[in-house]
Write a structure and sequence with these properties.
By secondary structure, this protein is α+β, with helices and mostly antiparallel strands. It is 38% helix and 10% strand. Strands 1-3-2 form a three-stranded antiparallel sheet.
């Protein structure tokens, strides 16, 4: 019987993220903007400006995948919120 080793995710502190990153996962989104996973998904589902601001890398027939968020769209959305609050 062949056993497979469960891959461990990388710790958040080993994440490489910069303001020039185009797509990030939710750990890196939190590092850039302070948005937690639940908040990011809530914004994707409720804000029309962010409807197409993420992509799922889940393959056909796979039960799990990786979701990436578009940094520029989140940045533009948050900047718009800042201008609207002023």
């Amino acid at each position: 019987m062949r056993t497979t080793k469960k891959r461990r995710t990388r710790p958040i502190d080993n994440t490489r993220v910069s303001p020039f990153s185009e797509f990030v996962d939710f750990h890196e989104l939190m590092l850039l903007f302070g948005l937690r996973r639940q908040t990011a998904y809530h914004l994707l589902n409720t804000e029309p400006a962010l409807r197409d601001a993420s992509i799922s890398l889940k393959g056909r027939g796979e039960s799990r995948g990786k979701r990436l968020f578009h940094v520029a769209k989140f940045r533009a959305f948050l900047e718009g919120k800042m201008k609207g609050a002023a």
